[in-house]
Amino acid sequence: MSESVDSRTKTLNFNIGVLGHVDSGKTSLARALSSTASTAAFDKNPQSRERGITLDLGFSSFTVDFPDHLRDGEGQQPYDNLQFTLVDCPGHASLIRTIIGGAQIIDLMMLVVDVVKGVQTQTAECLLIGELTCPGMVVILNKIDLLPPNKRQSAIEKMTKRLHKTLENTRFKDCPVISVAAKPGGPEAPDTEEPQGVSELIELLKKQTYLPKRNPRGDLLMAVDHCFSIRGQGTVMTGTILQGSLAINDTVEIPALKVTKKIKSVQMFRKPVSGAMQGDRVGVCVTQFDPKLLERGVVCTPGSLRTLYAAVISVRKIGYFKGSLSTRAKFHITVGHETVMARVTFFGLPPLGASDTQPPPTQPCSLETPFTFDREYFYHDEYVSGQGEGSSGPDPEQWALLEFERPVTCPSLCLVIGSKLDTDIHANACRLAFQGRLLQGFEDKAYAETSLPHLQIYKTKYKEGQVERVTDDYTVIGRNLFKKETNLQLFVGLKVTLSTGETGVIEGGFGQSGKFKIRIQEGLSPETKQLLSSTSKKKGKGGGKGGNEEECKTDSQPVNILLHFKRYIFDPHKKMVQS
């Protein structure tokens, strides 16, 4: 492995996410693989050292010869060498948001599994995040030195079989599985013991590389994971460029601080460069600011990111999540590089004419029906699953309105993940609840007044009352449709249907007890008049005595009044609408 790279050589940077359950040995593996450790690498965080677990996205890298299979048709290689940047993502549960932040920049995932313990809850969550964000994976069975030598091979084979079974319904079903001992003897053992299987792993990683699609065009977006100042030079931000490119003398914005800064110098793994592009891992020195103000966050082309108070997203429930997804509930929403609490409102296409063709679950952005303010949508009390009673199809297409507890800064169309991170981390349950894409953001703080009334989500309302008596052939008095205190003026002019088939219009109130008058435009049919007169006669016969009135109610069929209307949930006037 060559470590000294001449600054004129061209290096392809390939980002590998190292994910896995806490204590599966990810950091030891990264250390065994690496030669050059970058800023945040290898548990520098004092809190992490005490606990012996990784607290932030650690980064380190090593360089290898450029693999033959990536040469072009004429045998020319577009780069001089290949640099693997290892992104060591925290495995412990409370920091799942950090993993989601890191997963957006990963070209390949290494899932590290403790060969003795197998797949655990966090391993499954890592798999899910991988499925949402990453095209390929390599599984590493670590700590094989803990298996008794005479049973080692059979234990490895058994665990490999079990993993292939776990993965068979995911996009990683045929991924390679390799066994290693990254730190024989455990973390406390002296470094004299050679790691086992690591050179074979490097060869496997080289085989798995591809030329990631990198695009230097478009607005710059860089995820910053570390920040420090150098006296007399400025403030250095290290991170990975998620999109676009940067160069010395460019002006960049730090949205969290609402400031712009000029780039003074750029380094890639401690070597000065004039610029960098999407996928590169860089240190950028800008004019001085207090590094404590920005430990993690994003840097971008001035004005390119939006700060949102609310958003509409496409939404798809994550199959392993066991809870319900209810409207008005609060979830942790990870969007861009931030995690914030938000209240969720689910909605879908109106029940008739709903789309029956569904996009595949792993492609959250390929919605069949584009979201638009010109369409009406139907309010859902909770996320509607296609796996309901008697049905086993894919989930119907639906969306969610997210109302953030504090504004978030993010690029458009970014991945959104909703989770319940307050669930007990020791409970054997997946906490990732739903995923989607950001489709529409609301940048106005007063979005509830300015934007939401244009979002036409409606609820249907059904009310049922009874005809009390007939006034004439065209007028009846109704009861039990409204409470005494209801403002009947709101309902004047709405259409109603009698259970005998006639339609009428509410004309107004009648007396003080919530009764009302209905005008039947076509007039009552003779059968209805007969039915209503027999009902009232029976009532009359009883002379108002309780017992008989009860009898006449039960042995006569009352005529019901049905009122159907819809109400738009964000209409400030709370109007009732009938089609």
Question: What would you say this structure looks like, in words?
Answer:
- It holds the Pfam family eEFSec_4th.
- One of its GO terms (cellular component) is nucleus.
- Its cofactor is Mg(2+); Mn(2+).
- The protein is of the alpha+beta class.
- 16% of the residues lie in helices and 35% in strands.
- It is built from nine helices and 31 strands.
- The chain has helices at 26-33, 46-51, 96-103, 121-133, 152-167, 198-208, 447-450, 526-541, 546-555; strands at 11-20, 36-37, 58-65, 81-88, 108-114, 137-142, 177-179, 221-230, 234-243, 245-247, 251-254, 259-268, 271-273, 275-277, 281-286, 297-300, 306-314, 316-317, 330-335, 338-348, 377-380, 398-410, 415-419, 432-442, 457-472, 475-479, 495-498, 503-509, 516-519, 560-568, 576-577.
- The protein has a 15-stranded mixed sheet that branches. Strands 2-3-4-1-5-6-7 form a seven-stranded mixed sheet, sandwiched between helices.
- Strand 12 and strand 13 (271-273) form a beta hairpin.
- The longest helix has 16 residues, at 152-167.
- The chain starts with 10 loop residues before the first strand and ends with a strand.
- 37% of the residues are buried.
